[in-house]
């Protein structure tokens, strides 16, 4: 199915209803390998499933927990589409990756956007889907903010490498930023300036 990132010949088009829609196909294939588009209310159940999977499979890599979110009502997942712009990556119509974005509030902070919830299912890693998700987020973010910040657990070497490749720079370290089951986790602060 996937030929790998480096052999990709991407093409893009725009969906005017829900924001950027990105399709990527590989040479010799008529069908796109994946599609990235903004998620909306009809995607709430699929979003809830993959979000809970991310928290369950990578409990140390997110600020939230499976225990907390699995007890939240379905409506709370729909509400996130109001507060955030959430992009989903689909392979044969199955949601395989997600990433969220929201701008900070307040007169002195609204030029900053935050990337959250980045997750790609293991079978779709290393395919370029993660990059397409972040590219969609950056495109949308350009219209609203001047920089995008994120935090990543310091021990998450793959994610740190991925964000570096996406032109995020590490600018700080928050020691013991998270505490989970009695263990502390440092978080690396990263930023990408958009201008
Ligand atoms: C983080 C994530 C979205 C990245 O997507 P991905 O498809 O795995 O990313 P890619 O394969 O495009 O890039 C990963 C990079 O890390 C490298 N890498 C892989 N394993 C690594 C490791 N153990 N240590 C360091 N680098 C590693 C890869 O070689 C690649 O770098 P390259 O482009 O220079 O070759 C995905 O791995 C994921 O969902 N992880 C679990 C959830 C998570 O950690 N989310 C981030 C929360 S901040």
What does this structure look like?
Strands 1-2-3-4-5-6-7-9-8 form a nine-stranded mixed beta sheet, with helices on both faces. It has one domain: Gcn5-related N-acetyltransferase (GNAT) (Aminopeptidase), CATH 3.40.630. The chain has about 200 residues and is of the alpha+beta class. Mean pLDDT is about 90; it is low at about 1-20. The chain is built from five helices and nine strands; from the N terminus they run E-E-E-H-H-H-E-E-E-H-E-H-E-E. Bound molecules: coenzyme A. The site of coenzyme A (COA) has 18 residues, from strand 6, helix 4 and helix 5.
Number of domains: 1
* Protein structure class: alpha+beta
Reading the helices and strands in chain order gives EEEHHHEEEHEHEE
What fold name goes in the CATH topology slot?
Answer: Aminopeptidase
**Spatial strand order of the main sheet:** 1-2-3-4-5-6-7-9-8
Name the average pLDDT: 89
